[in-house]
Structures are given as structure tokens and as C-alpha cells.
């Protein structure tokens, strides 16, 4: 069959349509070109304005950051300084105009393009690190029954690690990890397994902080900077009843203390322990292994306590580490022998009862507490279990038994007990000491079990490989576990002490009120044949 030609109208129509399409395309391309040229010239014209706006934004956010970083107590002076500058500018001839020009110039400088921006996302080696971390977590964060597992071998690590940061050495410095809701994050063992794995895989030798968000099924891992070990003993800016145990991270402590370091002053976050009538943790237990710095912490506490109170020191180690305090104003006794320790603690128990009775009588009579009950009394015991062993061998009274009254009633009577003990003496500590010392410090290396036993909760940070002396953890009551670095407060009579540290401690010592010759020489010797007389001031207090 012969093919019929298409109707003419159709063939010419399609040609026309094709032509008009071609025309539309050219017009579109031309208008795009026009728009591009217009936008290019507009951005050329507006470029300075855009740069200045960007610069102003950067300056404003820098100002906001500076304000947020300024400690609250310094904000007033900062505000005053800014107000003074504004006033001076307003008063100077052409000042406002010059100020606007300077501001625009600074904004233009700040807002300039700063070269090619850093490439987005991790580089090859960082990707490899994150992938290997992800793969290591697969066995812990996956279950065979999960139809859409977040963790699977060869899976997408990007979904599991939405945020990450690396340090200069290419190691992870901060990481946000998502995990499935069925992971048993409420169990300490499950958490510990993950924390151990992450520590090993992210690089040992650093301290990590783990923040578990059980509600959001997220774990934030942060690498912590080492705590400063160079802060020496000094007068800390604290109120009466506050004692600085040491320094910690700024993440968990709102307050900072100005400390002098050499010529400089800097603000550091302290662990402040409150004692006295309103304290919920009126007594402290310090644990550590030999050489971890427990005596140094006691010396630091004594120097702070002596500002407002009296101190009795009982030293079971017999190393004479508190000799610098003998005869100083406010130091009622430094006892190194069992008989002296017993006598001092007997006096302390009686004194606590006396204060308690006096306070109660005054209260019942509607009077304020008498003056002779107000001066805080501190009982500092370094290794008291050494005396417990000696007392048991000699069939004498255990000095720890005498702590019962000061521990139980010390808060109301203004008596604070601090006990420092080594790990081998932990079991020999009396029940009263364990029950009433609600402020806790652990110094030096310690196992997870030891930390949990003393602090009552595991720290959220991993242990450091090399623990400097005076480094550890502190927990006040049921509060968070803080990392702690005790200020260097060495024995000034120790030959190994540096001159600067020796001078720092000597400057804090109160005046010597009892001449050294008046002190019986046997006082600092370990074995004492005769019972020590009750300290001079103690007798006075007892008879009043
Ligand atoms: N916070 C600190 N900063 C700097 N050095 C410290 C600190 N704490 C302790 N040291 C140093 O560590 C050494 C041991 O300290 P310290 O005597 O206080 O330990 P200890 O736990 O009481 O041990 P021991 O009972 O065996 O004496 C000392 O040389 C001391 O100067």
C-alpha cells in the first residue's frame, strides 16, 4: 500500500514548533546571561558592604565571646573601661567620626576573605581512624535481631559519629557517638567496656571524659587537658569555712579563683570544701598510696585552717612531715607518738562535748553560742591506723575510738576531722570514720574498685598513665566526682623542696608563739615512753 503523505499543515506546524522552541531556548540563555551579569556587577558594587557587614558580625561575636569568657567578678571593671572609652571618644573633637571610620576599617579587615577555606570533612587518615573506631564498636552496639542496625561491619560511620574533632596530631579530640537504644547504658560494666575500648583505640596517655546521655542515646567523648601542677601554696580568696582542696576542670565547677603563678595571675576552677554548721560533708577522708601526696594535702588544709581556727595534728607515719607547724600560733599539738596521740584525741573528744553542752545551754537560754565555741577546731590525722595496730599490740585504747564524738557531733561543735590513710590501712579504719567522712579524696594511682569504694561512684574520666603527686579525684557527698590537683605545699624542711615552694609555705605559716626549745624534743619521735602531756591550749580549753 502506498504511504500517504502527511497533511501539509502538520509538517509545517512541527517545523514552526521546533523553530519557536529554539527561539525560546536562546531567549532563556540570553536572560540567564543578563541575570548573571547583573548579579556579578551587583556583587561587585555591594562587595565592600558585604565585607563590612561580615566583619561587623565577626567583631560582635568576638565581643560576645570575650564577655562570656570574662569571669563575673571582672565584668564590672570591663564595662567601666568600655564606658570610659566611649565617653572619651564622644568628648574628643571629631571623635565619633573617627570612631566610625576606625570601626568600619576594623570591620573591613575582619570581614575580608581569608583565603581558601579548609576542606570540609575529615581527611583520609582521619576517616580511617573514625572507620576503625566504628568497626571496633560494632560488636557492642549491634544485635542480630535489629532490622536496620546503626552499627554493622562495613556500615556508615557518618551516621554513628555526627560530630568529631581532631587535634594537631591527627588524633580524635572530641567525638559524639550515637548508639542504639537497646544498648545497656545503665549498667556500669557495659559503659566501662565501651570507655575502655574508646580509650585504647583513640590513643592512650591522654585523659578522656565520657558523658552518657541515656535519654538521647548519645555518648560524648572529650579529651581533657592535663590539670596544672604548677600552682603553689598561697592565700586563696575564700570565705571562712571554705577550704580549697585543689584545682579541677572548668566544665563541672562554676567558680574560679585567682591564683598567682610566678609573676602572673590566672583564674582556675577550684574544688572548694565547705565545713561548719551548715556543711553537709563536715569531715574528710583522704586515701592514697605512699608518696601520692596525702600529707601534702593535709599540710595545705592545715595552712588554710590556721587562718581562722586551731589545729591538732596526729601523725601515725612518724616522718615528722609537720615539724614546720610546731609551736605556731593556733597549732595546739603535733603528735607523733601513740601516747601523745591518745592524749590529744581524748582532749579533742572532751572539748567537742564541752562545746556541744555550751552551745545547747546558750540555745536553750535564747543566747547566741558562746565565743569559746566559735573558733573552728581541726583534727588532722595522718595514718591513724598505725596507732590502732600499736594500741592493739599493747592492749591500749584505739585512738580511732576517740574520734567517735568529734565525728558525730563535730558539725554542731565546730570541730572538723580530716583523716588521711594509705590503701593498706583502709580496712583498719573504724566504722565511725567511714560513716561520717562524707567528703572524699583519692590521690595517686588507684584501681576502679578502689575509686568506687572510696568515692561511691566511678569517675567519668579515664586514669592517666603517669600520675603526678597530688593528682587524684574528689567527691563532696553525693556530688560529681572531680579530677583534682592539690596545690604544691611541700615540707619546707625537706631538702628536696625547691626554694620557691619552700618560701611559699614559710610565708603562710603563722607566727611562732612557743619557742622551739620549749617543745619537748621527743615530741616528734615515733616511740614515746611517757604519755604526752595534753597540749597547753588544750588544758586551758578544758578547764574553762
Ligand atoms: N600537690 C603536689 N604538688 C607537687 N608535689 C607534690 C604534691 N603532693 C606531693 N608532692 C611531692 O610528692 C612527694 C610525696 O608527697 P607526700 O609526702 O605528701 O606523700 P604521702 O602520700 O604523704 O606519702 P608518704 O606518707 O610516703 O610521705 C613529696 O616530695 C612532695 O613534695
From TrEMBL:
It comes from the Bacteria. CDD domains: ABC_ATPase (cd00267). The keyword Membrane applies. This is FtsK domain-containing protein. The chain crosses the membrane at residues 78-109. GO terms for molecular function: ATP binding; DNA binding. PROSITE patterns: FTSK. Keywords: ATP-binding, Membrane, Nucleotide-binding, Transmembrane, Transmembrane helix. Residues 268-452 form the FtsK domain. Residues 509-544 are annotated as: Disordered. Residues 535-544 have a biased composition (Low complexity). The keyword ATP-binding applies. It comes from Streptomyces curacoi. Residues 520-529 have a biased composition (Basic and acidic residues). ATP binds at residues 288-295.
